Amino acid sequence: MCKNCFEKVVAEFSTSLLSLYEFSKIGGKSKQKRLTIERDLGELLDREYFEVNCLRLVKRLKRHRFELFTFCERKDLSSNNNFAERMIRPGVVIRKNVFGNQSEVGAQTFATFISFFQTNQLRQENYFFFENQYPLVVQSAEQVIVVSPALESQVPLPHKLHESVAET
């Protein structure tokens, strides 16, 4: 197949995907609309593609096809990811200003911390750390509680928190 033919297939594929997405954003939200769009996406993905980039994208879209258009049905969801991007931005800036992470474990720990921190801010909860999954300290409005003293030695608490824990 000629190079221009491949480019044409990629252009048609991307135009069809973009049209489907644009259609999904207009009008009201309903389960029927979501099912219609998912059906149309399925028809697009079931075509035969030979171009490597199309195949890669088709594979990914098939894996997530029933998650992509949830916003068509639920009024509390946006059609884009801008809100999530804005939520993680402060963490990205902090990581940049402290010259990143020195290890993969550090990067994973930081990502987990930022995720929990942002979730708690969205829920308007006053937790420093999140329940028992990453048990260090749970801070309520009145007190600081050590959830797991066994882990206290692994992750040292700030000096003032040690004092407030001892007082409670």
How far apart are the termini?
75 Å
- Describe the strand arrangement of the main beta sheet, using strand numbers: 1-2
Number of strands: 2
Biggest beta sheet summary: 2 strands, antiparallel
The SS-based structural class is mainly alpha
What letter string, H or E per element, gives the SSE order? HHHHHEEHH
Radius of gyration: 23 Å
- Morphology call: extended
Beta-strand share of residues: under 5%
| Average pLDDT for all residues | 72
Query: What's the number of helices?
Result: 7
Q: What's the number of structural domains?
A: 3
Features:
168 residues, 7 helices, 2 strands, 59% helix
How would you sum up this structure in a few lines?
This protein is mostly helical and 168 residues long. The chain has helices at residues 3-25, 31-45, 52-64, 82-97, 104-122, 149-152, 159-167, and strands spanning 137-139, 144-146. The termini are far apart.
